[in-house]
Each structure stands twice: as C-alpha cells, then as structure tokens.
C-alpha cells in the first residue's frame, strides 16, 4: 500500500479508538442490574425421591456498593412448579357446565445477600450468597374448561422455612448503551433444610366431599439452573 493508503488506515483506526473511548466515558459501567430468568430445578438428596424436575422463573437485581462496582447487594425472588394435576369436572352437578380442577405443587423463594463480580464489562463472572426463606405450597384452582380463566383457588397445604443460597454465573453483554442488555446465566444451590410438602397424589377426595392430605417431611434442598436477560442501569 502507498503512503496515502496507510495514512487513511491509521486515521480510521484513530477515529475508531477515539469513538470507543468517548463511548466508554459517555456510558460508564452500570451500577445496578435487573434481570428475569427461566429456571430449571433439580432436587438434591432425599428430595429426589419425591419428584424429578421443576420449572419456573426468577426475578433478580443487584446494586453496586463500591466505586469499582464489583461488590454489590443482591436480591432474588422466584419459584418453581414441581408437580401439576388437572381433573375435568362437572359443575355443580351437571356436565352442561364443564370446569377444570388444577392443582400445582410449588416452591417459592426469596433472599438477600452479597454479590461479587470478578470483572466488569462485556464479560462479567460473579458469585453470590443470600439468606431468606422458601415457601412450599400446594394450590388448587377451579377454571372454565373453555376460557381457562381461574374463578376460585385455595392453598391446600403450605410450609415456610428459613433458607440460604449460594451460586455463581456470568453476564455476557449483547448491547451497549445507556441501558446495556446482557445474557445472564448461572447455577445455584438452595439449602432449605427440613420442610413439609405435598406431591402429586398426596391429596385424596373422600366420598363425603372432604379431602385427605398426606404430607411428606424431608430434606428439601434444590439445585437451580438459570438463563435469562438482565438490563443495566447507570446511576451516580
């Protein structure tokens, strides 16, 4: 290449580097993240004798507490459904009106704790730990067979336990800007200790219209795998 071509290449390169530097100054690293993830849960230990898998969602956020924005305060809220039953019924005594009785077995969880990011930028691996609670609940609802809308619901059985969680993951940035978007994936261990809960088949309908419950008591630890999207927010 001749001298003029080299000058053009160097000039373009300089402009690109300058633009990158200005973009970095204009959009500093996010101080906060808010994300929504799909969750798959696998029971650990004794809990694995009661069900195989659960699926749900998790909402999480973190807020940087230091200037380098690596140490953060994290909060999570989510749940998984590990059992589902649906029974077609007639209401009240005639099948001119069809309804569905749906029962779900759920684990809801929430926690707060520290998060630490090893690096910040386009690739951000992190670890965290939280303490909070887990809520085991079996809920039945009555819905229209055609429209699917819920008309009545009741909690058949529930239990609340103190819980803590440790995990790690990574954010991979896919869009820069004032509200950067990242893919967020991770794995978490839920230590729930001993809990009381129902599984599929633990509710029996009696001839007199009452129901009989057969709750289980066991260690209720869980592994969850997350994949979702998080949005960064910049604040001074």
Task: Walk me through the structure.
- The chain has 236 residues and is mainly beta.
- It has two domains: 30 residues; 203 residues, Beta Barrel (Porin), CATH 2.40.160.
- Helix content is 10%, strand content 63%.
- The protein contains one helix and twelve strands.
- The chain has an eight-stranded antiparallel β-barrel with strand order 1-2-3-4-5-6-7-12. Strands 8-11 form a two-stranded antiparallel sheet. It has a two-stranded antiparallel sheet with strand order 9-10.
- A hairpin with a 5-residue loop joins strand 5 and strand 6.
- It is elongated and about 65 Å long.
Mind sketching the topology for me?
Blueprint: H1 3-26, E1 32-43, E2 54-64, E3 71-90, E4 98-117, E5 123-144, E6 150-175, E7 181-191, E8 194-197, E9 203-205, E10 211-213, E11 216-219, E12 222-233
Antiparallel strand pairs: 1-2, 1-12, 2-3, 3-4, 4-5, 5-6, 6-7, 7-12, 8-11, 9-10
Which features would summarize this protein structure in a list?
236 residues, 10% helix, elongated
Please give a quick description of this structure.
Helix content is 10%, strand content 63%. The chain is mostly beta strands and 236 residues long. The two termini are 48 Å apart.
**Which oligomeric state applies?**
single chain
Total strands: 12
Poorly predicted parts: 14-25
Strand/helix succession: HEEEEEEEEEEEE
What's the mean pLDDT score? Answer: 84
Q: Give the end-to-end Cα distance, rounded to a whole number of Å.
A: 48 Å
CATH architecture of the largest domain: Beta Barrel
Say what the CATH topology of the largest domain is: Porin
Total discrete domains: 2
Helix proportion: 10-25%
Largest sheet: 8 strands, antiparallel, barrel
Radius of gyration: 25 Å
CATH class of the largest domain: Mainly Beta
- The number of distinct helices, counting runs of at least 4 residues, comes to 1
Class inferred from helices and paired strands: mainly beta
Strand content: over 45%
Overall morphology: elongated
| Main sheet: strand order | 1-2-3-4-5-6-7-12
